[in-house]
Amino acid sequence: MVLRSEPTGRQLRLATELRRLREAAGLSARAAAALLGVSAPQISQIESGLAGLSEKRLRRLAAHYVCEDEAFVDALVAMATDRTRGWWEEYREQLPTAFLDLAELEYHATFLREVQFLYIPGPLQTEDYARAVFAYRIPELPQEELETRVQHRMRRKTILEGSAPTPYEAVVHEAALRIMVNDRATSRAQLTHLLELSVSEHVIVRVIPFNLEGFAGAASAMTYAGGLVPKLDTVVRDGPHGASFIDSEAQLNAYRTLFHRVEDVSLDPNRSRDFIRRLAKEL
User: Fold this and answer.
1) Quick one: 190 and 116 in the same domain?
2) What is the CATH number of the domain that holds 231?
3) Three-class secondary structure assignment of the chain
4) Are residues 230 and 148 in the same domain?
């Protein structure tokens, strides 16, 4: 068994789900190892993402764990047997791992929902806007790393392109639309780009205006990525020390509710386009 030196976010999620299944079944790692005819340390390696698992062995474990959710097991098999080496792998050892894990998550997502209050969502940013955001970082990034981050962010746009783009919905607060991260030309170009994307069949952009009464959800910024089944959804939230990936069932339910609450109070897509168009004309 060849061990991985650095499991991807997707591999770690699979490992987490396998551990959760075992624990729900009340089995020890030693008992699970006996079922597969391997050692307990090997189960530990599988459940930490350091080792892979064949479809046959995964289905055998799921059967012994009495997991009767066939769609869920099929989704785990798809994760276990996936051999995709996406474009983000080119940036390994150049960028923090979270950048790669986010790109991988977006690539495999069945849909994406985003809520942002201070910045335009990453996949919707123009190159100049993204460069201005990264340039403001403290401590200041070396020019080469800054350009690498901008390039990586621009390549994330592939989820919105091609013959099978990912359904994408963004709820953006007026503050994010008005904050000029660089100059007026950059802001105008960013709003124009947002308008162009918003007329795509697979992209929905909604705006939360400043004058909305009774809105206390300004701490709700998130990226919600749909999995092959709802149990495999993931929420990404930015924090002071980087992005955190959330996948517990209770938290996912809470963030689903939170997204719909924010979505319900936002302007509909047509009124949102009119709103963005007015802001662009003011610049």
Assistant:
1) yes
2) 3.30.870
3) CCCCCCCCHHHHHHHHHHHHHHHHCCCCHHHHHHHHCCCHHHHHHHCCCCCCCCHHHHHHHHHHCCCCCHHHHHHHHHHHHCCCCCHHHHHECCECHHHHHHHHHHHHCCCEEEEECCCCCHHHCCHHHHHHHHHCCCCCCCHHHHHHHHHHHHHHHHHHCCCCCCCEEEEEEHHHHHCCCCCHHHHHHHHHHHHHHHCCCCEEEEEECCCCCCCCCCCCCEEEECCCCHHHCEEEEEECCEEEEECCHHHHHHHHHHHHHHHHHCCCHHHHHHHHHHHHHHC
4) yes
Q: How many domains does the chain have?
A: 2
In this predicted model, what pLDDT tens digit does every residue of 55-97 receive, in sequence order?
999 999 999 999 999 999 999 999 999 988 899 999 999 999 9
166 and 277 together in one domain: yes
Q: Are residues 60 and 192 located together in one domain of the fold?
A: no
Domain boundary at 81, 113, 134, which? 81
Domain that holds residue 274: 96-282
Q: Give residue for tokens 């007015």.
A: 278
Q: What is the pLDDT of residues 162-202, one digit of tens each?
A: 889 999 999 999 999 999 999 999 999 999 999 999 999 99
Domain holding 34: CATH number? 1.10.260.40
